[in-house]
Design a protein that fits this description.
The chain is of the alpha+beta class. It has a domain of 79 residues: HIV Type 1 Reverse Transcriptase, subunit A, domain 1 (HIV Type 1 Reverse Transcriptase, Chain A, domain 1), CATH 3.10.10. Helix content is 23%, strand content 7%. It has a two-stranded antiparallel ribbon. The longest helix has 13 residues. It is elongated and about 80 Å long. InterPro entries: DNA/RNA_pol_sf (IPR043502), Retrovirus_Pol_polyprotein (IPR050951).
């Protein structure tokens, strides 16, 4: 069996002769076993995606902490916000902070189609100040 490594222009008559001599075969369909990624790697898509342990973020020298004020939450959504915060704290996604912190990002709440809410922050100022670790990947 031969495979084509590089496409080159060919003469149409030559293709017809090769097909007639059974030198090549035209395949119109290919049967490929279809397995979705989430089925094949099911264990990777379970749970909340939380890594165990602590993460230390190293900041660049001279970084100036930023504290953003809290954004207003519509009265109609306050209960849903509290429910989501309680759920995230219970699932150990977030933890309650009782002391002032140097870095504070404002939170945005988005209502999803199914009626629940998604909480988001934008740590752009913090991201600019992070010292990125450098891990070279061996090439050989």
């Amino acid at each position: 069996m031969y495979t084509v490594q590089e496409a080159k222009p060919f003469h149409k008559g030559l293709l017809q002769q090769q097909k007639h001599l059974n030198l090549i075969k035209l395949v119109l369909n290919v049967n490929v076993e279809q397995t979705s990624i989430d089925e094949k790697y099911k264990s990777l898509f379970e749970g909340i995606g939380r890594l165990e342990g602590e993460c230390n973020i190293h900041l660049k020298d001279g970084s100036i902490p930023t504290v953003y004020p809290a954004r207003r939450v519509p009265e109609a959504l306050k209960d849903k916000l509290q429910e989501e915060l309680n759920r995230m704290e219970r699932d150990r996604i977030i933890e309650k902070v009782t002391k002032p912190k140097e870095w504070v990002n404002s939170m945005v709440m988005i209502k999803k189609k199914n009626g629940t809410v998604r909480l988001c922050i934008d740590p752009a100022d913090l991201n600019k100040c992070i010292k990125r670790p450098y891990y070279p990947i061996p090439t050989s």
